[in-house]
Write a structure and sequence with these properties.
This protein has 824 residues and is mainly β. Helix content is 7%, strand content 53%. It is built from 7 helices and 49 strands. The strands form 11 sheets. The protein has a 24-stranded antiparallel β-sheet that branches. Helix 2 packs antiparallel against helix 3. InterPro entries: Beta-barrel_TonB, Beta-barrel_TonB_sf, Plug_dom, TonB-dep_rcpt-like. Belongs to the TonB-dependent receptor family. It is a multi-pass membrane protein. Keywords: Cell outer membrane, Ion transport, Iron, Iron transport, Membrane, Receptor, Signal, TonB box, Transmembrane, Transmembrane beta strand, Transport.
Length: 824
């Protein structure tokens, strides 16, 4: 696919790239003087906050105003008044904190900082100054670290007060770093690994809990959610673009109690921006960049919020389109930049305030990804070169339709949702080397794998108000999914004709009841216990055709059980939180059906079992969260140990067809740390790291795994260091900078631990510099700052896996400019 030619203005004496970069910057400064000041806290917002303790009311306020919250939130005493109406953020905070012993300050970046009220003597000693147009934080507050309010634990929480190992990355930080998907987000989250097979093909792993790097029949170890809806089962990450979102929340460790079967490694939840009542908003963004050894990349987006029916309803839309240039050359096919690609999509959502405290929402999501080829290369052919007989395109289409009802009051809060997900993807692999295994003598062949997933899921939960010593949560879920898989292996010469094909359908029905309860004990202790009772039924039908022969299969399975959780937290002050917890997660079993006619399914050596068994993981961890007395630093650390029985893994038969095997028992232990430090108002520094020891402890004798070889695809060590800087020059003009360094430790592709499948062990970086002038922002960025050429993923296709000649390089250094205009 050739890059699309676009007009770029030229200025005398400047090259085309320099002119294209300079012109938006000139436009930015030219419009600065015409822009009117706009403060997020000065706008009128709709609030509904029932009467409750001050800390809970502050969480509700932060969620509804979409702001970060920091400082001494738990230091405020008493109950806040009920707030219902349209007012500024400053007015709502003033009413809420009256008589609580606390005060608020709103930083220039919009974060709300809560601190203890000055004594009367101190207040009298401080000179009185006229109140500015927007609240300005006092000098002792401006450098405090703020936190994103999260709802992944099914009720609003600050990470500092939660007993869960959790990370939340806010929209502003994601946007400043130029992150548009899970690749890139992993540098913000300790222990997060994303494979590098390609857009719409990747697999997410957390904390070293890896069942292998291939995606097939097994359920993903990490549950991926879009708002309230699970969007993956036995599927890769659909790579939804992180546009117009509030935050991304990451829960580590098994989440079986609240999230059901599958997420034994953790949960990643994308929280989109809800339609805002009474607000008109429009945002336009354009990015133009160039990849070294490749071509031009483009990215355009539009976001709009439109109020309707007065202030009781709103519609919000986000539309985007992206093209990215290839940088791999195929010397056999004599093609350059074979791995071009594009991503297009959008979201449309509506919200209606039924009555104070009750909101109904509905939305639709669509995204499509098309890549012209994979982006691995071969050893010995030179950088960014490979030799295939067949191109390997990929298509990924994702659609979601959802509706929800949310309500809150003095009685607590309720959420109910219903969603339909349609996820389809198709990949082609060069199967020329495998034709003889299927009885074909032709030279060129391809495997076309297609999978279509239809999921319907409904869920409702009810949470008690945060009043008194007891707090509880109860919920129910019902879901039904149907997956149609249709691999076709065909000889392409002299004329295309199928050699092997399968038509497989899987149906999975799940029903569950779950709940959690917390009790405040003496000595600042809190005990939390939870459990989930589930019932699963699954059916598989398969029809395999090879030449004139065929094989049919029809299987049924079911399981039921209880998934428990127990946690104890000690919070002697708002600066320290120590916790310990034990939790469990599990995955359902299933059936193997693929293989040449005559394939043995006895489970003996070198043969798959007809039915693979469920697996389960128990995790024990101890966590510590500390906030410095001045509020400038936060540290979160956890030490954990996990036991994993009957590890399921997607693997490949000698024919290159996929199957699932229980590779044995495994274990994982490690230490993870995350820290934020704001030495002064303009600068915030982030760091995180993981040291882990994932391994197989008791191998299955029928599978070629090695004890203590390590689990595939996950490094034993990883670390990230980043910063964000925002320096005001004058009232509506700011300089911006953001950057980061990442180290990914060494890992291996397979369970046998062979050196030839080694990958990782590299460092990379990113940097962006920008200027913000009222409604305009321009950002110049560099990705892969050092032009690192490491092997990120030692995999090409299932037919050449034993050759171990594949290398997947990082995208070469990419330099670009992003221009954003936002009007409210």
């Amino acid at each position: 696919m050739r890059p699309v030619k676009t007009w770029r203005p030229e200025l005398p004496g400047l090259s085309k790239p320099h002119a294209a970069a300079l012109l938006p910057s000139l436009l930015l400064f030219a419009t600065t003087a015409l822009s009117t000041p706009a403060y997020a806290d000065a706008r009128a917002l709709d609030f509904y906050i029932p009467r409750q303790p001050i800390d809970g009311a502050l969480l509700d306020l932060a969620l509804q105003a979409r702001v970060s919250l920091g400082g001494s939130v738990t230091a405020c005493s008493g109950f806040g008044p009920a707030i219902n109406g349209r007012m500024s953020l400053d007015a709502a905070l003033t009413r809420l904190l009256a008589g609580s012993g606390c005060r608020h300050a709103i930083r220039q970046d919009g974060a709300v900082i809560i601190s203890r009220q000055l004594s009367a003597a101190s207040a009298a000693a401080r000179p009185i100054a006229p109140r500015p147009t927007a609240p300005v934080a006092p000098p002792e507050d401006v450098a405090q670290v703020s936190e994103v309010v999260v709802t992944a634990p099914r009720r609003p929480e600050l990470i500092q007060s939660s007993s869960s190992a959790m990370t939340a990355v806010g929209a502003e930080r994601i946007a400043r770093a130029g992150v548009t998907g899970m690749q890139g987000l992993d540098s913000f989250v300790s222990g997060m690994t994303v494979t590098n097979l390609g857009p719409g093909r990747n697999k997410i792993l957390l904390r070293g809990v890896s069942d292998g790097v291939f995606t097939g029949l097994t359920q993903s170890t990490v549950g991926l959610y879009l708002d309230l809806t699970p969007i993956t089962y036995a599927a890769p990450d659909p790579d939804l673009k992180l546009i117009d979102i509030d935050r991304v929340e990451v829960l580590r460790g098994p989440q079986g109690t609240l999230y059901g079967t599958g997420p034994i490694g953790g949960v990643v939840r994308i929280v989109t921006r809800a339609p805002a009542f009474g607000q008109e908003a429009l945002s336009l963004a354009a990015t133009r960049s160039r990849t070294g050894g490749g071509g031009w990349n483009s990215d355009y987006s539009l976001i709009a919020n439109v109020p309707v029916a007065g202030n009781r309803a709103a519609i919000r839309a986000a539309i985007y389109g992206e093209t990215y240039s290839g940088y791999i050359n195929d010397v056999e096919l004599k093609l350059r930049r074979v791995n071009d690609g594009m991503r297009r999509g959008g979201r449309l959502s509506t919200a209606l305030e039924i009555s104070p405290g009750w909101t109904a929402r509905a939305g639709v999501v669509h995204q499509s990804i098309v890549t012209e080829d994979t982006h691995y290369v071969y050893r010995g052919l030179g950088p960014f070169r490979r030799a295939n007989l067949v191109r390997e395109p990929h298509q990924n289409r994702f659609d979601q339709f959802s509706g929800s009802l949310e309500g809150q009051g003095g009685w607590g809060r309720m959420n109910a949702s219903l969603a339909v997900v349609e996820h389809g993807f198709k990949s082609r692999y060069d199967a020329s080397s495998a034709l003889r295994r299927f009885g074909s003598g032709w030279r060129i062949g391809a495997l076309d794998e297609s999978k279509n997933i239809h999921l319907v899921v409904g869920e409702a939960n009810l949470a008690s108000p945060d009043i008194g010593r007891w707090r509880w949560l109860a919920g129910a879920l019902a879901s039904s999914s149907t997956t149609h898989t249709a691999p076709i292996l065909a000889a392409l010469t002299p004329a295309p004709h199928p050699v092997y094909s399968e038509d497989r359908r899987d149906r999975l029905d799940e029903a569950a009841l779950y709940g959690e309860a917390s009790l405040d004990l003496p000595y600042d202790l809190t005990l939390t216990a939870g459990a989930r009772y589930y019932v699963l039924e699954y059916d598989t039908t398969s029809s395999v055709i090879q030449g004139r022969r065929s094989r049919l299969f029809d299987g049924h399975g079911e399981s039921a059980g209880l998934t428990p959780k127990l946690a104890l937290a000690w919070t002697p002050s708002d600066q320290l939180n120590l916790s310990a917890q034990i939790s469990q997660g599990h995955r359902a079993g299933g059936f193997n059906t693929a293989g040449v006619i005559g394939q043995d399914f006895s489970g003996a050596a070198d043969s798959p079992a007809r039915e693979y068994q469920p697996d389960a993981l128990w995790n024990v961890e101890i966590g510590a969260k500390y906030r410095s007395p001045d509020g400038r630093a936060r540290v979160r650390a956890a030490a954990y140990a996990a036991r994993w029985r009957n590890v399921q893994s997607d693997q490949f038969l000698p024919s290159g067809l996929a199957y699932v095997v229980n590779v044995g028992d495994g274990a994982d232990k490690g230490v993870e740390v995350e820290t934020n430090w704001r030495p002064f108002e303009a600068l915030e520094v982030f760091a995180n790291g993981l040291i882990a020891d994932p391994r197989i402890t008791d191998p299955n004798v029928q599978f070629d795994s090695r004890r203590n070889a390590g689990l595939p695809g996950v490094p034993r060590t990883s670390a990230n260091l980043g910063f964000t800087w925002r320096q005001p020059l004058r009232e509506q003009l700011h300089l911006l900078a953001d950057g980061g360094l990442s180290y990914v430790g060494a890992s291996r592709l397979t369970f046998d631990g062979r050196q030839k499948h080694r990958m990782g062990d590299y460092a990379t970086g990113r940097l962006s510099l920008g200027v913000e002038a009222s409604a305009w922002t321009a950002r110049l960025f560099v990705d892969n700052l050092f032009d690192t050429k490491a092997n990120t993923f030692a995999y090409s296709d299932p037919f050449r896996l034993p050759d171990a000649q594949a290398i997947t390089p990082l995208r070469p250094r990419t330099i670009g400019l992003t221009l954003t205009w936002t009007a409210r």
